[in-house]
């Protein structure tokens, strides 16, 4: 945090955050207080309590209940979508048509045609930044691994093992969410898919296979979903990936990745330590674990916001690092194929 | 090592070791000096230098160059086969017909019909012990995990992740061995298959999928083999397994497993530490790793020999813990299906 | 970061940062952008380049070259001293006399009489907050350990082992700094002294012993200083502490503590991992380490600023958690005794 | 375990084990079954049950109830003393006078004059091997660290931190043992003293300081002993050591050391993992710990026996690695000084 680079000088980027749920609140506070070169100009939510929260916790942004009204605000340069997944695609299209840069939480859409429709619109607005929030790319440990790989530390990377494992929620929120989540692979594994492609040089997938089991949450069966899923993905460049997603971990959110190369390997987050404390007692020696992805990726959400602002200020062609719409489409494409493989018991060729 | 239990009292089990390569030497020394209730009565090898070694390092066992002659020795109760894989099946059959108990290194056979032929012979000799050497079951850490699972520590185990990863051998011995090894899944992953079935309650497999890549050893391509392979195995009881096998690790032999249950998980050998030393220098803090499976499983080979002797002394129906011929057949069955899946790019239903 | 608690509502605390070196810059940025309920109202530095930096990186605070002028600014409620150690005592006294709350980086003073003079002044201004910056108390891991101890997790804590070990600086800055640093125990170990007292219930010391060696930096000898020092401290309540301070670590800043109780123990920062990456290559498996205390305690500096502001807003008698002037005096008292013990080779009774 | 080296050829060393308590049993079994070049020729114990155990568990050694009778046995080349500490010195003298090599468990004697008397006798019998059982030198991890230090991996080693921490025994056996144990430093820390000297080049101590506390076992107070003791030892060569001994650990036997050098450091046994299993459950991620030194140093006891036999076969001047009588005397000298420092609260100059 030295003097801001030139690219962050000049008028701040005026951002409107749309959706103020738990994650929306975090994004809003980061943008309001911790992202140089940005101003939180507006918030948008249909819920009274969320707007009331904004009044107390944020530096007086303009308030909107209606997304269209926000888009009409000429003093908003970019929108930050933290809304239900089913709204993402159309909201991105609307924002681009209104001439605004867009950051949107993942997923772009569970529907490939929708994804492509958004890409089409974005191609007509090449001067606008559109980024999907795969925040792991901005976690300092993932970033360090990425940089070391690019410096050649492990030779040629040819395989990624990656997992998204949530602590078991006995209330089973995600069971109620199952009808619209797209299933475990589109809801969780998309992150691992993006990580694998990012670390392996953005290859396209050629074939996938998936399997799964219901360990604890029988309610998932009626939706054809599982609470533990595994998958293999083969890429066109010869790269391989193995994925694991779980909703039933006992010890916490255990989310991490491993990259294997011809001269070494790196593991990111192998033990999801919550901090630097080790406890020694009659049970042995232990560390506690990060309870949720929200705790695990606290820094990543901030850095992703800082990177987005820097990317807008650099303009088209800049090196920003976030997931593009094309990356998000590929993640959906692979995630959908995993779901189909789970349903059919057959490998799916893309 | 307190006073020997009753079952180890009485006349010692007289064992003949067949094959005195590196692993045969270790077995012979364990049986000669470290297994209570057993005597190393004979050795058999066609090679002068191996017999010469035996004369210097072992307590004067009888020497044979010919396996048939060893089987004729009435003062040998059991044979210990550490011979080339292609000989295993017939040598086991011959031993059983000669009325001798048999311990045989894995694999039983790469050919399913051969496996079944051996099982048929063993069923005709139910008073004889026949064990295949899946030594991981006797590693103290695997054994501890097994016991804890059976005590309910992690609830119902439903998934195993297991890997056999060798340090890269630039000389590529295994490339020359490829024509007869059966490929990476039958050569390496059989261990993981056996571990997964053992930890999940010995289920039968219903479907498998495999993929692989050649990272370093192009010479494997002509045999349809890979130097890094991944696989998914679904079991009839709903259990899942993921496997990884590699010939190209930079850091050592990294062989371990993870068992995931409804109330917890256990990892065995996650960091393959060679000992208890940690080094702190300008590269950070590090531990060195076990170079080969031979070092990693030194204790397991001993305990497996002790368990075999105890099992013979307990007689049929005893609880001995080693892999049965039926276990070995199932490992070959699954390993063969993985190979077929690798070749075809399709899931294989068993 | 939910809605601000009541205590942080109302007019912001207006703070003036004095000294804009590396650490001063960090404090200024934290106060400017990341501490709710505070405003960075002014900065003070005699150096052009530091003031120039402030103009670019901070939100337009008033600028002063002269400390007295800052104290005259009626719109400054608190001063934040990040100045050379020799100035601390008088600057605190001046601030208190000017009616301003004070945060001051450690040490309070290397001179016990000076420490007591400051305490005397503070007692005359009981409505003003005066805190010394022992930031480890605000590191999330130290804080977690503290809370767990208070919840009884390890029974009665009776011993602390604590260390401050810097990566070797071949340039030997600290050798040139030796004449005024007070030596390794007053410069480094004061942190460990404060940690030990904080975790053991703020006992007074009754006897100390220290020893040391010069491993690499012979230039220290002329000042009677060492680059590696060890010490034992016995407290009046029966508690024990062992300290280690080093200037010559090869692997990074390795700063941590261990608390031992009658029912368990806790280690804080045993392996100073820089992040969540593990590298596996021909050297084994390793993690990189935090290079400096500045990296290691980044979060702690922020939380300490937040706690100070909260403490001022709560008013006298609040539970703020930072080190009081009395704590700082006791740290100096013990540190001075350690130095004397090092010089004499005798235990020193306090 | 390849062919035995020449030095182990020839007639086996005929050993008589004296004392068959828990540790004596282990030594006897190692010597009987696992040490090449040695024969367990005789055992000596005044207790019926120990001799009965020997009959069942050992290969028919000659039995003696009386030490003098064993010394008269001309077919015993060496005695292996696992007897009460108070007997060690005289038993060693008697053995040497009887022309027998001696291995004796630590300590040589708690009395310095006694130690010197034994050394005097040994100097009159330079052709006889006399070794004191500081087994840590033979633990594979300690040995690896020693070798790496000698290869220069950490530059010049200048400091050792070492600890002997036993799991708390609620029965307080060691309290009843306190009158004769010599106190925590002579009973436990002697091991750390020997380790420190061994790793730092066998320096002599010049000054020590010790302190301690009674955390749980009040019964120790009447003997002037403590259940947690800390100490600093300064060596003539500028080396430093810090020691910690505890009887009250909750998590197991936590015995290890750290060596710090000018170019790096090594930790041996920092986390006393009992095996390679990690458990992940609602308490976090943990490993269990070695319960006792007996489990922790199982390998070391074996290797120490092998080294003793090799040393005898090499003859005087050989490089054997075990602690000499002079090493043991120095350990007693330092341990006694630590006890005196604990009693007086003063540093003790040697």
UniProtKB/TrEMBL annotation, chains A, B, C, D:
Family statement: Belongs to the Gfo/Idh/MocA family.
Keyword GTP-binding: no
Keywords in alphabetical order: Oxidoreductase
Cellular-component GO terms for this entry: cytoplasm
Record bears the keyword Oxidoreductase: yes
Protein name according to UniProt: Scyllo-inositol 2-dehydrogenase (NAD(+))
UniProt cross-references to SUPFAM superfamilies, sorted A to Z: Glyceraldehyde-3-phosphate dehydrogenase-like, C-terminal domain, NAD(P)-binding Rossmann-fold domains
An annotated Gene Ontology molecular function: nucleotide binding
PANTHER family tied to this protein: BINDING ROSSMANN FOLD OXIDOREDUCTASE, PUTATIVE (AFU_ORTHOLOGUE AFUA_2G10240)-RELATED, NAD(P)-BINDING ROSSMANN-FOLD SUPERFAMILY PROTEIN-RELATED
Name of the top EC class for this enzyme: oxidoreductase
Transmembrane segments: none
Domain of life (superkingdom): Bacteria
Domain GFO/IDH/MocA-like oxidoreductase: 142-266
UniProt cross-references to Pfam families, sorted A to Z: GFO_IDH_MocA, GFO_IDH_MocA_C3
